[in-house]
Design goal:
Elements (H helix, E strand, L loop, with lengths): L18 H16 L3 H33 L8 H49 L2 H5 L3 H43 L1 H8 L2 H38 L1 H6 L3 H53 L5 H42 L21 E8 L10 E8 L4 E5 L6 H7 L8 E6 L2 E2 L5 H6 L1 E4 L10 H6 L7 H10 L3 H6 L17 H15 L3 E5 L7 H15 L3 E5 L11 E6 L2 E6 L1 H7 L2 H19 L1
Parallel strand pairs: 3-8, 3-9, 6-7, 7-8
Antiparallel strand pairs: 1-2, 1-4, 4-5, 9-10
Helix pairs in contact: 1-10, 2-3, 2-5, 2-10, 3-5, 3-10, 5-6, 5-7, 5-10, 7-9, 7-10, 9-10, 14-16, 16-17
Amino acid sequence: MFSRPSSAASASPSGGGTRAPRDFSQLRRLTRFARPYLPLLAFGIVCTLFSSGLNLVFPGLFGRLIDASFLKVGSTDTGPLDRTVLLLLGVFALSAVFGAAQSYLLSRMGASVVADLRRAVFSHLLTLSPRFFATHKTGDLTSRLTADVGTVQTVVSTALAQLFSQTVTLVGGVILLFFTSARLSVLTLAVIPVIIGTAIAIGRRIRKVSRQVQDAIAAANADAEEAISGVRVVQSFTAEPLEQGRYGAGIVRSFQAALKRAQLQATMAGIMSFLTFGALAVVLWYGGRQVMAGELTPGKLVSFLFYALQVGVTVASLTNIFNQFQEALGASGRIFELLDEKTDLPEVAQPQRLGGVTGRVGFQNVSFDYGDRGETPTLQGLNFEISPGQQVALVGPSGAGKTTLVSLIPRFYDVTAGSLLIDGVDVRQIALQELRANVGLVPQETLLFSGTVAENILYGRPGAGMTEVQDAARAANAHDFISAFPQGYETVVGEKGIKLSGGQRQRVAIARAILKNPRILILDEATSSLDSESEALVQDALERLMVGRTSFVIAHRLSTIRNAGRILVLEAGRVVQDGTHEELMSAGGLYKGLYEMQFRREREAELVG
């Protein structure tokens, strides 16, 4: 059965023979994001030292409490017992204060690091070219911004705090074990290398499986987002079972990987538990024999057991932290893959300034191909120049290269051969921000953002005042319908402008372009999906918008471009005719054929209507 290709096919492979250097590199890069917050980290570490150090005092005091109680049976002097209890309460109170401070400071640092990381990834994504987004699903990218960064946050906040705390506890606990009983310490520590070896062996497998979980979830999210955004198409084709099956398959893959990870983690936890408590049982047996032989007091045995328990729990905690770091390394690998993506639209170190742009556009032997659509170039050997303020219509059959041609002007893609010039300067020598600031685009599929009408118009020039916004709306024939809304310009348009009609969305987009005031304007079939009434209003607004600007118009209805100052006819990526409507009709050829065929269709539609 035919179905859309699954996102899972594009999931990045994990693993490789250079894991250790790559792990170190990823940790070093994460550390760079932590540099601005080193004071928080330093204070957090100090609090960790105090909190963990105080926790190490507790077993010794508890042992003294035991000896004060049991070795002085019949004594009425409760002073040592009372002082020990008060000291214990003080230790617990101070440990709680430092522990809370440590938790807050390191959590705050972790949240700050992750916020910076999210901003860095999102900002970098915005610098990548349309070619990148054509090969990556939105759901996968948003998954990296949310789920993967969230996984990293757990490590750089909670797990990092635990790492410092448990390390101090482990080192201090081992030292105090030897002070309490050297022979029991050797017996206890003999099992630690086995625990660490088990953690490393299973932890590596957990990391690999965690990457598979993250990839599978991202792929499923991408499929879900695609289906939800195109829900009308899904429902119109009654393709709900197909999409449910496709998303379900992705969830099954993520579930199977998550189950495998859970099995590995459970195996590790079981082994750690047996080794830890088995060792404690042996210590208790051997320590009991020492107490019976008078070589050790009951209090010291209890203290040792507490220290041994702390060390055992700490080792177990460190293995869990190790697992979390393995998961975070998998997630950070996916994040850094995005940060390492290079745009295919490089900018020169010293760009040329355009200054006052007149709008002269020149194509000098321009060819272009997408690189993944076969051998035939989409555009071939284009040579023409458009004068400032000239209105140019692009005409041709579907697939002739009209949209590709106008996409080269704001440099959404770079030419494969030749040069594209703005006011005599190659666009590759102009800073992208300056180039695109002088190019306005009104596409066929208008995209409005899920804010208010005013916010969408202000997208053209964020610093404009409300009077300028309203003037732009009037010029776009949009002011009247906007004013008719109960909230006027504060009306929320919904996701992608869904609360507005097609004609209303298009006029808001035109107002946005008018407010931007570009010198070069691109209209890509801006009226193709509108009814006759909306088209007339939009066409009138477009006529006002084009005045004094160099304009490229792609129109599916040839009757709307009859008055264009110049018409370029494209076929198979080449300009095959160039002239006015009258000149091209007199010359015959492709343009006349297209015009007459469309004219007949329009006449037939009118007769049927």
